[in-house]
Amino acid sequence: MRVEITGTFKKIVKMRFENGILKVVANRFLSDKKIKEIIEENIDWINAHKTSVKEEPKPQIEKAKNDDKERCCPQSKDSQGQLVQDMFAARQTLILGDPVNIASCSSGCSYLDGKTLYISEKFYANRDSRLKAVKSFLKKLAASGVADEVADFGSKTAMCPVKIEFRENNGSWVKCSLANQRILCFDFRIVQLPQQLRKYVIVHAFAHFSHPLHDCGFWKFVSEFLPDYRILASELDEYKILKDI
Ligand SMILES: [Zn+2]
């Protein structure tokens, strides 16, 4: 069976058959493994409809859960260098670890369509205003999608934050000293990281609820959820450039 998956930032998974192809529209915070599981859960419906050529939408609401393994996709040095240049020029950005082009639109609001982030033409002409519009979009995206990931982890571990914020932090992905007071103050650019690195930052933040320092107990907590946390910490280091943009 041929399957085509399109990402969306709406919290939905929709399936329909079109000319014998299963077309899936799924929340971009869901991993491929989770989408595959959802397809398998709906296999009876799929089997009943796969011979049909007319469109029959079947919406299914599924909250994003990101507890699956996912590695960062290494890029070649050349393409990475071009991406960094384009990000500083606000011609491209990174969303959930994927490069996204930036283009202008006549709409007053920024929106993401596939691999293109459209921003209002009134902000597009100038690099600084373009960058401001991109950052504003990323902040909103972090406050919706990443906040859900944080809430999911909190409910799984029965740990309740006092407050969750997404700001422009100087230097840190999450403010460790505030996390000790159960205030989670993330850098909004966490939304630009791949799934497993977002999870690393989130687990790091929750570990501070019971461990104020980066001591043995702290890393033991982190390793319970992320046994390969050392590799993730070093991968995260490669993304610090995002905070210089
Ligand atoms: Zn820390």
Can you tell me about this structure?
The chain is of the alpha/beta class and 245 residues long. The protein has 2 domains: 3-60, no CATH class; 77-244, Zincin-like (2-Layer Sandwich). Helices cover 40% and strands 21% of the residues. The chain has helices spanning 32-41, 43-49, 77-88, 121-124, 127-156, 176-179, 195-207, 216-225, 229-237, and strands spanning 3-8, 13-18, 21-27, 58-60, 92-95, 98-105, 111-113, 116-120, 163-167, 183-187. The strands form 3 sheets. The chain has a 4-stranded mixed β-sheet with strand order 1-3-2-4, with no helix packed on it. Helix 7 runs antiparallel to helix 8 (216-225). The longest helix has 30 residues, at 127-156. The model is unreliable at 58-75 (pLDDT under 50). The structure holds zinc ion (ZN). Zinc ion is lined by residues 176, 204, 208, 214. Zinc ion (ZN) binds at residues 176, 204, 208, 214.
Which molecules other than protein and nucleic acid are bound? zinc ion
- Sheet with the most strands: spatial strand order: 1-3-2-4
- Global geometry: globular
For the record, the CATH architecture of the largest domain stands as: 2-Layer Sandwich
Helix count? 9
Report the end-to-end length measured between terminal Cα atoms. 43 Å
Per DSSP E runs of 2 or more residues, the count of β-strands stands at 10
Number of domains: 2
Low-confidence stretches: 58-75
Mean pLDDT: 85
Q: What is the gyration radius calculated from CA atoms?
A: 20 Å
Query: Can you summarize the main beta sheet?
Result: 4 strands, mixed
> By helix and strand content, what is the structural category?
alpha/beta
The fraction of residues in strands falls at 15-25%
| Secondary-structure element series | EEEHHEHEEEEHHEHEHHH
CATH superfamily membership of the largest domain = Metalloproteases ("zincins"), catalytic domain
Task: Classify the helix fraction into a percent range.
Answer: 40-55%
